[in-house]
Design goal:
By secondary structure, the protein is mainly α. It has a single domain, classed as MazG-like (Helix Hairpins, Orthogonal Bundle). The chain is 77% helix and 0% strand. It contains five helices and no strands. It has helices at 3-21, 25-50, 56-59, 66-84, 89-103. Helix 2 packs antiparallel against helix 4 (66-84).
């Protein structure tokens, strides 16, 4: 998948959920923020499981390959939230990378 394909997927999902859910922009932002927290928590569980630090009761639920899936879930929901808030993620990343490079220029 190219990044352009991913962006098209985000656009299509955003349009679909706007049509189906009929939420206000504020409600959509709130729902996606909560969903991002949920997905981040699931990623944390997978990270702990992958390094052997997950408690035994949760280990039975964890499956091989779920780590990659949880990373993908976080990215998808993050981009959906950014779309709901009219944030251009690529522009934001470009700006942030330039700031990091300027701050840590000697190391980079």
């Amino acid at each position: 998948m190219t990044f352009e394909n991913f962006q098209q997927f985000i656009e299509a999902q955003h349009a679909f959920f706007r049509k189906v859910k009929r939420q206000t922009k504020k409600d959509r932002i709130f729902a996606r923020t909560i969903k991002l927290g949920e997905e981040y928590g699931e990623l944390c569980d997978q990270v702990l499981a992958s390094v052997g630090d997950q408690r035994k009761g949760k280990l039975a639920k964890e499956k091989a390959g779920d780590l990659e899936s949880e990373f993908a879930d976080v990215l998808i929901v993050l981009f959906m939230l950014a779309k709901a808030m009219d944030v251009d993620v690529m522009k934001a990343l470009d700006t942030k990378v330039k700031k990091i490079k300027a701050k840590h220029n000697k190391q980079l």
